[in-house]
């Protein structure tokens, strides 16, 4: 099999397995083996192994020697570190590259907020999906592919947390953020972005309400 075909199969397996993980198909304590995954997704060992390596590298799965792979379960400290990392990364880039955000980008961001509002209130995965989509769409404006991948990996870790805890993410601050970006009030927009990121749920505890303007 050529490398191009192997890469295509690996990507297909990765997408299918990651989708199953974030949609709760596998309980948190499930041990995934190469043999089981080969049978489930109907492919050979090579693309399965490549996909597992990629998922392990981005902290979606943890490798258990001589057993298989288990869905990564971030500790409270690890999750806190991810949130602090995201806050520093996203806020610094918004401050540095705010001039890249034009009217068409504002419209795209606002449409993402509308999609969130229109999804069922009990569909927590859709809520979190639109939350991730909003942050990635905003960050993609800056054109830094390396930093974008770091943010994507951080959001993947948080996705696993939200799947396990069945929590949703509010986007009330996203609409306010877009409003201030549209007005060109970047300092306030950065403050709101920081509050939005740091107001996420931690290990089953309720978020502390934040007034982003007074903070």
TrEMBL record:
CDD domains: WHTH_GntR. Keywords: DNA-binding, Transcription, Transcription regulation. The keyword Transcription regulation applies. Transmembrane segments: none annotated. GO terms for molecular function: DNA binding; DNA-binding transcription factor activity. Residues 7-74 form the HTH gntR-type domain. SMART domains: HTH_GNTR. InterPro entries: GntR_C, TF_FadR/GntR_C, Tscrpt_reg_HTH_GntR, WH-like_DNA-bd_sf, WH_DNA-bd_sf. This is DNA-binding transcriptional regulator, GntR family. It comes from Sporomusa malonica.
